[in-house]
Amino acid sequence: MKFFQKPSPEESAKVPPGQHLAKGFPVLTYGATPQVSIEEWEFRVWGLVKPTVFKWSDFLALPQYEFTADFHCVTHWTKLDVKWTGIKVTDFMSLLEVDPKAAHIMEHCYGGYTTNISIQDFVREENFFAIKLFDEPLPAEHGGPMRLVVPHLYAWKSAKWINGLEFLEQEELGFWEQNGYHRRGEPWEQERYSN
């Protein structure tokens, strides 16, 4: 069975250069999959922001929306029209007191993974914290109980098992960025690797 296929002519406008369509929803992970219960789960913000710790109930108190977004992996596959349920990044940001000097964020995750993103790329209406995938609680292998989804960048910026944001004045590089991946990762520009 082929796991990937070329997009049809109707689909090709939604698929960035160099990508093939995934028939399923592949799982790619560096290291072990963290197993975090909702009771233990917490989310911290620190750096150029008023330090705060949020519990699962704090996120559930925010409005939840359904999102349908295409998902582009740097390893040359795309899954179209993924259906998620989650909380808008913009709604979460309204809870924070961020220093105006903050221009970058380091995403931190259970398991030790990090990835960097600019405030400009992070605070967009279409970005969200996902808690469900196709109407089911987000499974651990896809980043549950919660992951970030940043549809306009390659998926390594959509950190699985996210549990914190560090607000920074200067850009710092996360795990894959330190290991040769592009600082930003825009699929339509094929920003896969650093120059």
UniProtKB/TrEMBL annotation:
SUPFAM superfamilies referenced in this protein's UniProt entry, alphabetically: Oxidoreductase molybdopterin-binding domain (SSF56524)
Domain of life: Bacteria
InterPro entries cross-referenced by the UniProt entry: OxRdtase_Mopterin-bd_dom, OxRdtase_Mopterin-bd_sf
Residue span, Oxidoreductase molybdopterin-binding domain: 31-176
Name of the molecule in the record: Oxidoreductase, molybdopterin binding protein
UniProt lineage: Bacteria, Bacillati, Cyanobacteriota, Cyanophyceae, Nostocales
